């Protein structure tokens, strides 16, 4: 079958969702061009690949099957082409999926200095706490805690060891007291965080005498927005829980107070991760080198 590979690139952009407009923006073309490309691909294959509505598109069963089969090969082809024309500074679109709690990556300086050092690279950062196959969804790399990264990925340290902390504002503690043991948290007003509405709030995990345990707090306030969680704690709304780096500026000036530190040992930190391939595209190598240099500078 004689097939225009550009049509498959259009299809992959549509598969990433949520609609033709978003796909057009990613490709730098018009919405009409995306719609026509999908129609041509469907006519060529003789099967419907997407179901359209006024606001979104959804892959059909055939579309899902095609996406699984072509995403990785097209990504590999793009890498090969990048290698073939590697005759100058790194360039091209670099897509990275980053967890919302990766403060070191998202705080601004790392991205700003990367953009300054590599003007030919367009960095597209998606902040998401959902877990998915970055290769199948068209991302070049991701940033996550080391404990949740698949073992077949290459992982480059972004930070040193991290730890979680429980924190509260001084005025809250003055009114309600300071818990001496994690189990006392059940008597406190707590502010929880959840990844998405479909999952349970993040568990508050501790270690005592080398044995891990978690406390089933019942948050009075739960959110998927880290900033709202912090603001509520700063306003005296209760005790909250998360990565220490997230709270660092507020802890440094005393706006929040760390609690129960003897029960919260460190664990492996954040990593930049990507598929294990023999040849990495120059744009990805540039990000890896930048992350390593940045990590060494801020130690």
Total number of domains? 3
Which strand order spans the largest sheet, edge to edge or round the barrel? 4-3-5-14-6
Structural class: alpha/beta
> Which descriptor suits the 3D outline?
elongated
End-to-end C-alpha gap? 55 Å
Number of strands: 14
Largest sheet: 5 strands, mixed
Number of helices: 10
User: For the record, what is the CATH homologous superfamily label of the largest domain?
Assistant: Periplasmic binding protein-like II
Walk me through this protein's architecture.
The chain has 299 residues and is of the alpha/beta class. It folds into 3 domains: 1-85, Winged helix-like DNA-binding domain superfamily/Winged helix DNA-binding domain (Arc Repressor Mutant, subunit A, Orthogonal Bundle), CATH 1.10.10; 90-162 and 267-299, D-Maltodextrin-Binding Protein, domain 2; 164-263, Periplasmic binding protein-like II (D-Maltodextrin-Binding Protein, domain 2). It is 37% helix and 22% strand. It is built from 10 helices and 14 strands. The protein has helices at residues 5-15, 20-27, 31-45, 61-84, 103-106, 109-117, 170-176, 226-234, 244-252, 282-297; strands spanning 50-52, 57-59, 92-98, 121-127, 141-145, 153-157, 164-168, 190-193, 204-208, 211-215, 221-223, 239-243, 257-259, 270-275. A 5-stranded mixed β-sheet has the order 4-3-5-14-6, covered by helices on one side. It has a 5-stranded mixed β-sheet with strand order 11-8-12-7-13. It is elongated. The mean pLDDT is 87.
């Amino acid at each position: 079958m004689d097939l225009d590979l550009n049509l498959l690139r259009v299809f992959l952009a549509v598969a990433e969702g949520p609609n033709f407009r978003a796909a057009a923006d990613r490709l730098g073309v018009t919405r009409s061009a995306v719609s026509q490309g999908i129609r041509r691909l469907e006519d060529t294959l003789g099967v419907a690949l997407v179901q359209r509505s006024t606001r979104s598109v959804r892959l059909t069963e055939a579309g899902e099957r095609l996406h699984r089969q072509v995403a990785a090969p097209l990504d590999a082809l793009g890498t090969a082409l990048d290698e073939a024309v590697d005759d100058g500074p790194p360039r091209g679109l670099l897509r990275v999926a980053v967890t919302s709690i990766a403060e070191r990556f998202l705080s601004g300086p790392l991205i700003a200095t990367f953009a300054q050092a590599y003007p030919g690279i367009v960095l597209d950062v998606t902040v998401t706490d959902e877990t998915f196959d970055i290769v199948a969804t068209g991302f070049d790399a991701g940033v996550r805690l080391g404990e949740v990264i698949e073992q077949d990925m290459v992982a480059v340290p972004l930070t040193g060891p991290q730890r979680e902390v429980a924190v509260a504002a001084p005025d809250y503690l003055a009114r309600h007291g300071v818990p001496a043991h994690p189990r006392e948290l059940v008597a406190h007003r707590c502010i929880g965080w959840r990844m998405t509405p479909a999952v349970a709030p993040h568990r508050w995990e501790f270690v005592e005498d080398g044995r891990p345990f978690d406390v089933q707090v019942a948050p009075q306030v739960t959110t998927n927005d880290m900033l709202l969680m912090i603001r509520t704690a700063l306003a005296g709304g209760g005790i909250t829980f998360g990565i220490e780096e997230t709270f660092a500026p507020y802890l440094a000036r005393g706006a929040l107070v760390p609690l129960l530190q003897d029960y919260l040992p460190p664990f492996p930190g954040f990593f930049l991760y990507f598929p294990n391939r023999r040849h990495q595209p120059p744009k990805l190598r540039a990000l890896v080198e930048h992350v390593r240099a940045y990590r060494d500078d801020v130690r």
